[in-house]
Amino acid sequence: MPYSVAVAGASGYAGGELLRLLAAHPDFEVRTVTAFQNAGQPLIALQPQLRSLAHLTLVETTPANLLGHDVVFLALPHGKSGAITAELPRETLVVDCGADHRLTDETAWARFYGGEFHGAWAYGLPELVHSDGTRQRDLLVGERRIAAPGCNVTAITLALAPAIRAGVVQSTDLVSVLAVAPSGAGKALKPHLLASELMGSASAYGVGGVHRHVPEIQQNLRVAGAAQVSISFTPVLVPMSRGILATSTATLEPGVSAGDVRAAYEAAYANEPFVHLLPEGEFPRTADTVGANTALIGLAVDSDADRLVVVSAIDNLAKGTAGAAVQSANIALGLPETAGLTVNGVAP
Amino acid sequence: MPYSVAVAGASGYAGGELLRLLAAHPDFEVRTVTAFQNAGQPLIALQPQLRSLAHLTLVETTPANLLGHDVVFLALPHGKSGAITAELPRETLVVDCGADHRLTDETAWARFYGGEFHGAWAYGLPELVHSDGTRQRDLLVGERRIAAPGCNVTAITLALAPAIRAGVVQSTDLVSVLAVAPSGAGKALKPHLLASELMGSASAYGVGGVHRHVPEIQQNLRVAGAAQVSISFTPVLVPMSRGILATSTATLEPGVSAGDVRAAYEAAYANEPFVHLLPEGEFPRTADTVGANTALIGLAVDSDADRLVVVSAIDNLAKGTAGAAVQSANIALGLPETAGLTVNGVAP
Amino acid sequence: MPYSVAVAGASGYAGGELLRLLAAHPDFEVRTVTAFQNAGQPLIALQPQLRSLAHLTLVETTPANLLGHDVVFLALPHGKSGAITAELPRETLVVDCGADHRLTDETAWARFYGGEFHGAWAYGLPELVHSDGTRQRDLLVGERRIAAPGCNVTAITLALAPAIRAGVVQSTDLVSVLAVAPSGAGKALKPHLLASELMGSASAYGVGGVHRHVPEIQQNLRVAGAAQVSISFTPVLVPMSRGILATSTATLEPGVSAGDVRAAYEAAYANEPFVHLLPEGEFPRTADTVGANTALIGLAVDSDADRLVVVSAIDNLAKGTAGAAVQSANIALGLPETAGLTVNGVAP
Amino acid sequence: MPYSVAVAGASGYAGGELLRLLAAHPDFEVRTVTAFQNAGQPLIALQPQLRSLAHLTLVETTPANLLGHDVVFLALPHGKSGAITAELPRETLVVDCGADHRLTDETAWARFYGGEFHGAWAYGLPELVHSDGTRQRDLLVGERRIAAPGCNVTAITLALAPAIRAGVVQSTDLVSVLAVAPSGAGKALKPHLLASELMGSASAYGVGGVHRHVPEIQQNLRVAGAAQVSISFTPVLVPMSRGILATSTATLEPGVSAGDVRAAYEAAYANEPFVHLLPEGEFPRTADTVGANTALIGLAVDSDADRLVVVSAIDNLAKGTAGAAVQSANIALGLPETAGLTVNGVAP
User: Fold this and answer.
1) Cystine design at C348: which of A267, B225, D196, D233 (Cβ 3.0–4.6 Å)?
2) Min CA distance, A238 vs chain B (Å)?
3) B75 and B35, same structural domain?
4) C174 and C281 in one domain?
């Protein structure tokens, strides 16, 4: 019998992608979908792409409505999950796609988010290799509280962690610039997210170290072995529906060869089902990850600039959010890690 | 009486934009348009947007067809302008939009382009301030051989030169990542430039220091005062018709404040008609530069990462190519520098 | 001395395009820009593409603020211009880009718009040829109250009026389907106008004869000579910043040849500066009209289906709105009709 | 044990989508992939989105290489499948995504395609209801030669056939205008398919009844009961990766009500798994069908214009090509019709 599932925040983009993945998952059955303002509406009115779930109606996002399910996925605005989760039984698997339970450092939380600090949960990036060789996936087995990573964080962590763990680059002068789709910003009605503003245009935001994903990246790279992490992080909105293409660079440690670098990534990802290292001289494009749980990674060593350049591509809503949540839930429940997920993108 | 003008390479994107600007210029009259394969066709068949020039027919790109004009603009593939220019009179103003005459260093030419080296011409980036305070515009007055800069080069040079000249950043650890429109790659029929491949996708190319614009950036920043320039440069193709959004970062020199940085840029650009420094906390978008000769620049100091972040936006075909060529021609001929050019973008 | 100009509704897309055109116009000087909610803000904050007008500040949209100018352009929501215009002097040229003064039929107004009916003004589509051969431009000379046409209306009227006037098609079974850019819907914060919703998607709206532009099209085609007009009209939102591509079809009258049809359009547009008939077998694309006041028209006779197919392309904000307003103002004031306007599009 | 499958023409867009669907299909196993020029290359080099098939290498498209499979899908240029199929055993299920076996009328073939006529196969549009009530799906059971429909044809047939079969509209004055993605035109290197040409632009092609899909539409609507079919058909290229939005209109028969129309469509599609009729007043968008085998249909009755307007949306590569092929193969083989297919789109 499939696990019964509730999705809170089912009217947004992350919620919609969760539902798309769950609808195709052999072991899950979506019973309940919740929303704030849109409660009472048929799900199909908000997620017209989800024809197979047209029978569902959005109910209000309350703890009561989330009780009685084996698994609860939260796709709520930051700051909303703490109070709700407190009322869910310990044995319910709760996967939070929001930021509330990602950061271990209360000071970082206070500086970048503010409001009550609810503490960190098990972190839903199975491919993160700790400095001691532990894979993060091992910490998710049997877990009942999981925080899915931020989408930009995933793109950058997967790009840089292997090099840092292997000691082939310095961690104190990292630079990441990301081409990102506006769906990462959700359905909020903000002028700069209008189609007329975004189509045909590229623009940076959160420039200068103020983006909320910075402390989460630092946290991950410390897990991978960095004593100290300094990163210049700039996301650039570009006109595409989905996708993150992160260009991350780091200063090479002296004497490191291109072969050393590649070996570090092969060690990290050779057996990963969802992280694929591209051959020498090839670099990914986001289109190839659309709808897939795949992260694609290309490497270049720039001897003149003395820098490693890593280009990583993910679908911000899939591997960047909902896919990571489902993958982590699979692990937590003892299901095959790849259940209900694909590595094949919808391209062109 | 207007200057008579010929445009060689009139069937491509750079040629088309040159013609659009020249058609609106009060002091120029386009008499001749040339092409290689498309010779014999009406211009309007290749540039259907140029209704006011529908009377022109493309003739073959030969020195003979370019003789007898006051001004010749070359928008040819790299390596094609040397032989042609050799046969044009010294008094003809020749502005080359290709790379043939940009680099002063024959070794750099050989490494990144190859083929015969034709030597550098006066460099068509009027706003470049030399380490001794000379503005590049002063070197263009009366010139008859001008090399217009590469589009990515313009975006990065304008972003970084003031900081380097003022000594507020180091020049040995620069990182630039650019969101670029595919029109910069021209009309060549290459699979990765197909609409189905590019729409909805972002992808990096020329990764790892191999892009031809690297030595030109280094050359410019040395002019601005850098003893040595090391730059990691990665262009990312994004689905928009025009535009470059460059995110450039540099390590701050010790003790430098945000005010010091801003002062350096104000000194450089306060009186520039085409380079506009945005207020604190604002960053440009490429849409605002479409069709305009404008470069927009936003600054942020990231104290945590100890880096200056400069975001610059240009239209790759306008200020990035054809606009710079016209602006430089204006200066060379003693016309108002802004003649036939606008600072207002076509947005949305 | 240039005419002094005020633009009411300067923070929207139509207002922005008006200002872009006016800034480049040799005979106009923008003195005043007004807005509702955005009053008090610098214009550049709302129209960051208009660098040459960065000195202007938005003031409130009131009759008092619009007094004392030679020309007032109104780019206001429907229903807002009547009360304001009533307080402006008769000798002020007022050009309304809204719908308030387009319809002559109060019943049609009541059905499609509702609210107070303010009566029709001189209609700003200079190229409309009346059944008696009068050109609409002649009715604009010396006028002081002009209503600029709806954008979709312009695309369809220019496509169908010549055939109707010449009697080569029936007017009772017209079908027009338009690919339209979302900028026509303005900056309103509506969910379906978000970039994530629109990019990569096409969708119809106003289906089934309910769109407000239907009665205006009918009115124009009656002016061109139709006794009765029946039109099926469907706009389709597509992911581009600007542009309308209208495909309009009409049943051919018996015995009409392709040559008869072409002759009708040549008679109508041979001398028009802004309407260009493409050669046999060629059809326009919207990119070629971006930023231009051009309408491009292609014709095909489908003998199997017994229908004329007319494909017309305009920039919805230029010839579709602001360009038509400036063109009409030029005529009204006795300026060259093409002053400040271009036929050359910004492409690619 | 899964059926062994070969895909011929695996390097194109239709081939890629076939492979994406087949890779997720529980009953098929892709053993062989073929190509013409790209033979010898790894599949992943041509279809970088298909990570799960990275072990496959393209072999040459020859009959020999296609022998020995249970199912062969052909995604070849028009005119290429006849000779190949002639050499495949009768018991092999062959599904042709090309046009070679769609038309029953040799005259129509000669006029619109030319070259040798190979005769029609069973037509792979299971939802087509014949005038006598037969559903096309019933004719596919046990079949071994199936022609998948043209993508535009599917969008229009599904939109118009129910009304024609029910006799609520006339079939002699149909008009369809489609917003179509360029992926329908394949990977051919043609100038007008370059991203710089297509992004930000809409353009019509095949105008005036010359498009090859016209006779196939006529054929289908005759099957649905039309004595004679006259249709004006215009496809409009718009800047999106996938999707067709067809706006189809037909003159209502006298006395027909909106309820009559809706009843006709409900009768046709109430039990269809992949064709969904939207509620009154709702119209589809292509984004909701991306990657899905869904066709979404919205209806409006325009009493003023006396026309039915049907808006239909499909993914041109999925339900429009590869999805229809897999769906038909499912039926032919006695598998569940929905096996390996989804109704949920990848949106945003």
Assistant:
1) D196
2) 7
3) yes
4) yes
Spatial CA neighbour of C196 closest among A128, D295, B45, D288? D288
Interatomic CA distance for residues D10 and D40, integer angstroms: 12
| 241-270 in chain B: CB under 8 A from chain C | 241-242
Is the domain of A170 the same as that of A293?
yes
Overall number of domains in chain D: 2
Residue pairs spanning A and D at CB distance below 8 A:
93
Q: Which pair of tokens denotes residue A57?
A: 């109606």
Residue C13 in any domain: the answer is yes
**pTM check: above 0.95:** yes
Does residue C97 have an active-site annotation? no
- The answer to whether the CB of B249 falls within 8 A of the CB of B301 is no
Q: Using alpha carbons, select from C34, B321, A220, A223 the residue that is nearest to residue A233.
A: A220
Nearest-CB residue to B247 (from A234, A241, A303):
A234
The crossing angle, in degrees rounded to 10, of helices A258-269 and A151-166 is 120
Same domain, B97 and B160: no
Indicate whether D78 and D164 sit together in one domain.
no
Decide if D333 is inside a domain. Answer: no
pLDDT of residue D201: 97
Q: Which of C76, C93, C151, C237 is catalytic?
A: C151
B137 within a domain of the structure (yes/no): no
- Segment holding D158, helix H or strand E: helix D151-166
The order of strands in the sheet holding A122-123 is: A58-60, A28-35, A3-8, A71-74, A93-96, A145-147, A122-123
User: Regarding beta strands D174-180 and D28-35, do their DSSP bridges make them parallel or antiparallel, or are they unpaired?
Assistant: unpaired
Residues spanned by the domain of C229: 152-316
ipTM passes above 0.95: yes
- Catalytic-role residue among D66, D88, D103, D151: D151
Residues contacting B26, CB < 8 A, separation 6+: B2, B339, B340
Query: Which of C187, C190, C241 is nearest residue A199 as measured by Cβ atoms?
Result: C241
Residue A210 one-letter amino acid: V
Distances (CA, A) of D77 to B156, D103, D113, D186: 45, 16, 12, 10
Q: pLDDT digit string (tens) for D278-326?
A: 999 999 999 999 999 999 999 999 999 999 999 999 999 999 999 999 9
Residues 6+ apart with CB under 8 A from C1: none
Question: Is residue A159 located within the same domain as residue A289?
Answer: yes
